[in-house]
Design goal:
Elements (H helix, E strand, L loop, with lengths): L22 H21 L8 E7 L8 E7 L37 H21 L10 H28 L1 H11 L23 H22 L5 H39 L7 H5 L6 H16 L8 H8 L21 E8 L2 E8 L4 H27 L23 E2 L5 E2 L1 H11 L3 H10 L30 E2 L3
Antiparallel strand pairs: 1-2, 1-7, 3-4, 5-6
Helix pairs in contact: 1-3, 2-3, 2-4, 3-4, 3-6, 5-6, 5-8, 5-10, 6-10
């Protein structure tokens, strides 16, 4: 009998799925392991592989107290396969199989669909580690450095999570996909990662914080809808990943929040009231608020693209077949089949973004994106309390969802942050007001210097309100190897 709450560390691969009794899958994973470690050493955090990092490792998958904190060298981190506990008598909660017992194997006719979803999700995980690998050398504090590495090792674990499902349930096809996941590289022209946002550069720490706020939040929405899956092992896998994902978004939200805070405090101390006095604000060694807004605009637009086309038959198939549900599916009060329902979708009509009722089944990407936008809006409101409290007149906003899009309905038009279609000349004239320019990037880069004294923070960011694991902010979260 497998104790699914407690993680077994008796095999090379920590797990709560009874791997020691599942020789075929254990062997396959042990074969994959060295390639993964090679990938981590080649593409993981650059320059810190020998450092001792104060990391959390999952010890059980219960609702609380699941992690243990200790110093670890990252290549020795115990990446494991962890699924949330199985729910008794769980049924397929939506689609044409609604109410049937949840599947413990992938139904034959849905194998191709599940394979594609696992690979797309799996590909994002190493992608973000690759994007962030240069950031360690400019960390604003040891606390932030540790948080970066925590996110990185957990994204590595998320790759393990998808690879386990591929190896266990998809046989030889799964093995091939698992190997390919180690071959692609973020930003590589010949073998890029599969989704656009995971091929963008993450050049500085503000980008990292924006990425973990906006792009990890897309990850959360995707995991939430896969957590509803009628394929039970996928559901359980995603449910546990979500507990880790919460920390990633915490890192992003507090990171941007601390940046805003420091800027506002510096402005206040210098007697600067107008956030648009950019040169004066920058002279204080902090990032001006309009530039922070531009960074948010960029990362928001890139993340909206991850939801795919507004109208999609793939999304309809994934729902109909019981594989990918809606956000909080089981809390929604409707028939969970959507056969005759409609959903309002934003489309371009006569050059104007217009809301049109569309068959709900094909509008599921749009619906998930709407849920995402609601979630982002709450985070922005929390950021806006910071200038208000310090007494600086500035509000962050989300641009219109059609702004700067590369995928879907608005990919081929220029749209202002207010949602107005504009011509090429207007776009060219205004782009620098709305998106970070090379000059903005160079200024931010000029502030990025490593702060390696425990308890010291770079001048552009405020210290956190509290440390990790109830430790003080001046704890030595990373012991950097000489
Ligand atoms: Fe992840
Ligand atoms: Fe994440």
């Amino acid at each position: 009998m497998i104790d699914i709450d407690t993680v077994s560390y008796d095999t090379k691969i920590p797990n709560n799925v009874g791997l020691s009794e599942d020789r075929r899958v254990l062997k396959a994973l042990e074969k994959w392991h060295p390639g993964y470690i090679d990938w981590w050493k080649e593409m993981g955090p650059e320059g810190f592989q020998d450092s001792l990092v104060y990391l959390r490792t999952a010890m059980n998958v219960g609702a609380d107290g699941w992690a243990k904190f200790d110093y670890v060298r990252m290549p020795e981190y115990r990446w494991g396969v962890l699924l949330a506990p199985q729910k008794q008598n769980r049924v397929v909660p939506f689609g044409e199989h609604l109410g049937e017992p949840a599947w413990q194997e992938i139904p034959g006719e849905h194998r191709a669909l599940v394979r594609r979803l696992l690979v797309i999700q799996g590909d994002t995980e190493p992608g973000s580690v690759e994007q962030q690998r240069h950031l360690g050398t400019t960390a604003p504090s040891l606390y932030d450095l540790r948080n970066l590495f925590q996110v990185n090792v957990e994204e590595g674990r998320h790759l393990w999570a998808m690879v386990y499902l591929l190896q266990k349930y998809l046989g030889r096809d799964g093995r091939e996909e698992a190997n390919d996941l180690l071959m692609r590289r973020s930003g590589d022209p010949d073998k890029p990662r599969m989704l656009g946002a995971f091929n963008e550069a993450t050049p500085d720490w503000l980008s990292f914080f924006m990425f973990t706020f906006f792009t990890d939040r897309d990850g959360k929405m995707q995991l939430e809808s896969l957590a509803q899956s009628g394929f039970d092992p996928l559901s359980r896998t995603c449910r546990f990943m979500l507990t880790e994902e919460a920390h990633h978004m915490f890192v992003g939200e507090t990171g941007v929040g601390r940046t805003i805070q420091r800027t506002c405090e510096a402005m206040k101390a210098a007697g600067i009231e107008d956030p648009n006095e950019i040169d004066r604000v920058r002279a204080l060694g902090v990032i001006d608020l309009p530039t922070i807004q531009k960074k948010a605009n960029l990362h928001y637009a890139l993340s909206l693209d991850l939801f795919g086309s507004e109208v999609s038959t793939n999304a309809a198939n994934a729902f109909n077949s019981g594989i990918k549900g809606r956000y909080h599916e089981t809390r929604i009060e409707d028939d969970h089949r959507l056969v005759d329902d409609t959903y309002p979708v934003i489309r371009l009509f006569d050059g104007v973004p217009t809301v049109v009722d569309t068959p709900a089944l094909t509008a599921l990407n749009m619906r998930l994106r709407d849920d995402y936008i609601t979630d982002c809006t709450r985070g922005i409101a929390r950021w806006n309390r910071i200038p208000a409290k310090i007494g600086i007149d500035f509000e962050m906003t989300l641009p219109h969802q059609a702004f700067y899009r590369q995928i879907g309905e608005f990919a081929n038009v220029h749209i202002s942050p207010d949602g107005v279609v504009i011509d090429d000349a207007t776009w060219a004239a205004r782009e620098g007001d709305w998106l970070p320019s090379p000059d903005d990037g160079a200024f931010i880069a000029s502030l990025m210097h490593a702060e390696t004294e425990p308890g010291h923070y770079a001048g552009w960011i405020a210290p956190p309100r509290q440390g990790i694991d109830n430790l003080p902010g001046d704890f030595e979260y990373v012991k950097i190897a000489a």
